[in-house]
Specification:
alpha+beta; Alpha-Beta Plaits; Calcium-transporting ATPase, cytoplasmic transduction domain A; Rossmann fold; seven-stranded mixed beta sheet; 29 helices
């Protein structure tokens, strides 16, 4: 069973690592992926061994809360609202606290009650009272921080909780010392501790960290815009026909096989098949295709697309979670929640990073104590190390970039199922393309009819009559041509379908044979008359269909699947950096002709569906990183075997299941887009990780005081908190640059 949960309380990648570690210990768990960015967990497990209560308890043991994801307000939006409230309260008390604490040193005007030695206790206790609301509203840092420390899986909250708690405890100790000094006439002692209060540091640290978290939550909300816009596409109601009467019902009440009425300007509510009328539909929101698509009887319509100018009635085929829109939303969410290999590396590092930082902080305190510095200085150094080391930037480096990239791709009609696929795509050096439906439209058409002393219309009529009961794609092309010329089909007898070769039947006592060269050779029919014509057809990538009557060749019908206009340009772009190969079941001559027209590097012809996987395996054995591009039906095994499987088509169920990436448009140029997005995303992730690591490598030694003895440079806890928040914001800002990537300019 696969289920998604919302996780609350996570603040860094060490948090997500702790949740994963705790849940993985449960019996029956197959796979778990926790996303810091989406505050979610996707879990695959045995429902006989586990239930929601056990899973929630495991998450709670790690210090967080888990609830089953619903379609209500996204957790990211709720986090942003909560964070904004916390930030307002924090700043409301932090500003007067900072003003009071710094006023003496900077000569700012203060009420007289805060001046003078006799008022030291009032001065100190007022700071304590101003700090407390900030601590209370940000209590999560402490509850989660100390709980995870107790569970031996410390995280960013642990660093904040330890640092600010140390400052608060020292401040309370200072109040006692001030009281003692005032009560025992030791004014020097009272004045010394009156200047060593750390309440403003604790309050400001919590406020600045909350400010950083607010910016992070805002960034998360912006990166999830693609998902929110998709959810908003679906209408709330639908008009259905029941017993001949039109009734408006809520969308959740629509059932499979209901007849839905859609008028001009209305949104298609669910997926279905048109049974009445014709129209054009704007599918750009889901497929990225800017041109409206014509729909008539038996055409498929997709929920959340816009009916433009016609009246149609369609029969419902999919509802709720089974619709194309629901599948797209699920894929985008799962891609954002999944982890690329580079992200798992960052998680492993952050998992051991926090304990190391705590050790460095303790060592810093010990060293400066041994050097003879007072407790206020020593504590300040230790707290600075804890605060500046928070691994927020490290945890956000990968997921923000991935979520922005997958959301941007979704707008272009590209569905990336996992961040691993997104990372792998940039490493591909060989692209294998299926022909039918990928390079070509997948709809063969009659291109030429050649006859030998025989009437062209009569030949087409006879052949169409024979092919009428065949399910071969070439038969459809002949029948469509006969329909176009308004020819009447004749009755047939003794129909014989020869699999892989052709078909024969009797019409008015004449034996009509239609098929490939192998069939006519088997029947001893001389075809040398057509050799020159067949050669010319093959050079144009047109498949010849031999036609004989009573063992005499009377004509050849040339059928071809038209190459998409975009395919040649797309292959030209891909060939710049990749080896491009075509894989097809077509005969060698036709395949070679298409290969020549498109200037492909290599062509594999006459390959059966079950042999396509072996071609992929052979290429991989040569050290190639292979992307397979197919229609997702007869290419399913090859798509799964490839390093990156890309299904091109209208998002069929098989395509979505088999491939790593689904292209909603029938456009091969989107393969180039996928690779370009992958390359830009990985560069962005590496930039983010570089800055996150460099920040900590430089920041921790400075906070520990390595420059203090020689250059008198040190970081106090407030500066460390500001720097830590700034590092997270800078990483998020860099990742958000991906939103402005213009793929069209890259081509």
């Amino acid at each position: 069973m696969k289920k998604k949960y919302e996780i609350t309380g996570m603040t860094c990648s060490a948090c997500s690592t702790a949740v994963e570690r705790s849940v993985k210990k449960l019996d029956g768990v197959d796979k778990v992926s926790v996303s810091l960015l989406t505050n979610s967990m996707i879990l695959e497990y045995d429902e006989k061994a586990l239930d929601d209560d056990k899973i929630a308890k495991a998450v709670a043991d790690a210090g967080y809360q888990a609830v089953v994801k619903t379609n209500k307000q996204p957790v990211i939006d709720k986090d942003l609202k909560t964070m904004k409230q916390r930030l307002k309260i924090s700043f409301s008390f932090a500003l007067p606290l900072l003003y009071l604490a710094m006023g003496h040193m900077l000569d700012w005007p203060l009420p007289s009650i805060f001046y003078g030695d006799a008022n030291l206790l009032i001065f100190a206790f007022t700071q304590f009272l101003l700090m407390m609301p900030i601590v209370i509203v940000n209590y999560q840092y402490f509850t989660v921080g100390f709980k995870t420390l107790w569970k031996r899986s410390p995280n960013m909250d642990t660093l904040v909780a330890l640092g600010t708690s140390a400052a608060i405890v020292y401040g309370i100790f200072a109040i006692y010392m001030i009281s003692y000094g005032l009560g025992h006439g030791q004014m020097e002692l009272a004045m010394q501790y009156g200047m060593d209060l750390y309440f403003e540091s604790a309050g400001t640290i919590l406020t600045l960290i909350t400010l950083g978290k607010y910016f992070e939550s805002k960034a998360k909300s912006r990166t999830s815009e693609a998902i929110k816009k998709l959810i908003e596409l679906r209408p709330n109601t639908a008009i259905i026909k029941r017993n001949g009467v039109e009734v408006e019902v809520m969308i959740d009440d629509v059932m499979v096989n209901d007849l839905v009425v859609v008028r001009p300007g209305m949104i298609i509510p669910v997926d279905g098949i048109v049974v009445e009328g014709q129209t054009t539909i704007d599918e750009s929101a889901l497929t990225g295709e800017s041109m409206p698509v014509f729909k008539e009887k038996d055409a498929k319509v997709i929920g959340a697309t816009v009916n433009q100018n016609g009246y149609i009635v369609f029969k419902v085929t999919q509802i709720k979670e089974d619709t194309t829109l629901a599948q797209i939303i699920r894929l985008v969410e799962e891609a954002a929640s999944s982890k690329a290999p580079i992200a798992r590396l960052a998680d492993k590092i952050s998992g051991i990073f926090v304990p190391i930082v705590i050790s460095i902080s303790i060592l810093t305190i010990i060293v400066w104590s041994l050097l003879g510095y007072d407790i206020a200085f020593v504590l300040s150094m230790g707290i600075s190390v804890l605060i500046i080391s928070c691994p927020c930037a490290l945890g956000l480096a990968t997921p923000v970039a991935i979520m922005v990239a997958t959301g941007m791709a979704a707008k272009e009609g590209i569905l990336i199922k996992s961040s691993e696929a997104l990372e792998k795509a940039q490493a591909v050096d060989t692209i294998v393309l299926d022909k039918t439906g990928t390079i070509t439209f997948g709809k063969p058409q009659v291109r030429q009819i050649i006859t030998y002393d025989f009437d062209e219309k009569i030949l087409l009529q006879l052949v169409a009559s024979v092919e009428h009961k065949s399910e071969h794609p070439l038969a459809n092309a002949i029948l469509n041509e006969a329909k176009k010329k308004e020819l009447t089909l004749l009755d047939t007898e003794d129909l014989d379908v020869i699999v892989g070769k052709g078909i024969s039947a009797k019409i008015d006592q004449q034996t009509v044979v239609v098929g490939n060269l192998g069939l006519l050779t088997d029947k001893g029919i001389d075809v040398t008359l057509a050799d020159k014509d067949v050669e010319e057809l093959s050079e144009q990538a047109i498949t010849p269909l031999y036609c004989a009557i009573d063992n005499k060749l009377v004509g050849v019908i040339g059928i071809a699947d038209q190459i998409k206009a975009s395919s040649k340009e797309a292959i030209r772009m891909l060939k710049k950096d990749h080896n491009v190969i075509m894989l097809t079941g077509d005969n060698k001559k036709t395949a070679a002709a298409i290969g020549k027209i498109l200037e492909l590097d290599q062509v594999f012809s006459e390959v059966l569906p079950d042999q396509k996987e072996q071609v992929i395996i052979d290429l991989q054995s040569q050290g190639k990183i292979v992307a397979m591009v197919g229609d997702g039906i007869n290419d399913a095994v090859a798509l799964t075997r490839a390093n990156v499987g890309i299904a091109i088509g209208a998002g069929s169920d098989i395509a979505i299941e088999s491939a790593d990436i689904v292209l909603m448009k029938n456009d091969l140029s989107n393969v180039f887009d996928v690779i370009k997005i992958s390359k830009k995303t990985l560069i962005n992730i590496k930039q983010n990780l570089f800055w996150a690591f460099i920040y900590n490598i430089i920041g921790i030694p400075i906070a520990a005081g390595v420059l203090y003895l020689w250059l008198d440079i040190r970081l106090n806890p407030m500066v460390a908190a500001a720097a830590m928040s700034l590092s997270s914001v800078s990483v998020v800002t860099n990742a958000l640059r991906l939103r402005y990537l213009n793929i069209k300019k890259e081509k």
